[in-house]
Design goal:
The protein has 332 residues and is mainly α. The protein has 13 helices and eight strands. The strands form four sheets. The chain has a two-stranded antiparallel sheet with strand order 1-2. It has a two-stranded antiparallel sheet with strand order 3-5.
């Protein structure tokens, strides 16, 4: 009888040790894994065993059996989230599961800057190492078609903003997000526009906003710059914007705008043609869109850079000429 009790005690002790070892393996023991950061892609619809296999493929030596058992024990069925995860040591089975059900995935970002051209935007997208280059080889028109845009010219159609995405996302999805955001912001601003503006539709607002974006030196002057161009449109005055003329020159522009450039007629030369150019000339930000649809209440028709980033605004040509003489020609 004593021998039986001893054997029973030893069996219970062995079971307790096994349970303790199992608990330690799940709760405390670090899972063997490579040094540094390890990225793991969990496919959409993957079960916990498939997730364990994905972890093991990247060198994270988790036990699929223990991981599955802990997954069921914790009542996590159906909570596993797909995506790209990044792990670094130390990790336990529980900490791995916590990440996989929280959806704490890797998020990459890309930033489009106000005033960029579509060419600059395309270059930034193409250069991003985490984007899938589905647009490579497509011309601008085909990109617009792929993202569901109705417009024929891509310039100015995309909201300059920072966009987050999962590694491996199609670059067409970034174009699509930026296009849809611009459409939404433009529509919202159009609904709250000032009455009586000489702007026929949201696209014309976008065109003018792109000019204001390129012409504004200080953000606080954006409304005044917009007012100058709105005032000119009201009286049928030429916009006479250097940025539009430069845009029309394309690759011919060498960084120095000359008199002959101002006289070279293109659809974008607002020194030779009245009204707005046919398309935007850059990516306008939300602030520039809002400025052209709610410009400052001033009568100015001219402005000239003072040389410190600010501008001098004038209501008539005589005052403007004096400002030019003072700030541009160095006269008192």
């Amino acid at each position: 009888m004593p021998r039986l009790k001893t054997l029973l005690f030893l069996a219970l002790l062995a079971a307790a040790i096994a349970l303790a070892a199992g608990w330690y393996a799940v709760e405390r023991a670090p899972v063997p894994m490579p040094e540094g950061k390890v990225r793991v892609v969990v496919p959409k619809g993957a079960h916990v065993r498939a997730a364990a296999a994905a972890l093991r493929e990247q060198g994270i030596a988790v036990s699929p059996t223990l991981m599955f058992a802990r997954y069921r024990m914790r009542g996590l069925d159906g909570q596993l989230k797909a995506g790209t995860y990044e792990f670094s040591a130390p990790q336990t089975i529980d900490s791995l599961l916590d990440r996989l059900v929280s959806g704490d995935t890797v998020v990459e970002t890309i930033r489009f800057v106000e005033g960029w051209t579509f060419r600059q935007m395309r270059a930034a997208i193409y250069a991003h190492p985490e984007l899938k280059r589905d647009s490579a080889g497509l011309d601008d028109a085909e990109i617009l078609k792929r993202i569901g845009a109705d417009e024929q010219h891509p310039e100015g159609l995309f909201m300059p903003e920072t966009y987050g995405f999962a590694p491996g996302t199609s670059d067409l999805e970034i174009y699509r997000q930026a296009y849809r955001l611009m459409k939404r912001k433009l529509a919202e601003a159009w609904e709250t526009r000032q009455p009586g503006l000489p702007i026929a539709d949201p696209y014309q607002a976008l065109v003018l906003a792109s000019i204001v974006e390129k012409e504004t030196g200080k953000p606080e002057e954006r409304g005044k710059v917009a007012a100058v161009f709105v005032n000119r449109l009201r009286i049928g005055m030429m916009l006479q914007s250097d940025p539009t003329t430069i845009y029309g020159l394309g690759d011919r522009f060498d960084g120095n705008l000359r008199k002959r450039d101002l006289q070279a007629d293109t659809p974008y030369n607002t020194y030779t043609r009245g009204g707005l150019p046919p398309t935007p000339i850059a990516l306008p930000g939300a602030a520039s869109i809002e400025a052209v649809l709610a410009p400052a209440d001033i009568k100015a028709l001219y402005f000239v850079a003072r040389g410190d980033g600010t501008s001098e605004f004038s209501n008539n040509l005589a005052d403007h000429n004096r400002a030019v003489a003072r700030y541009q020609l160095g006269r008192k």
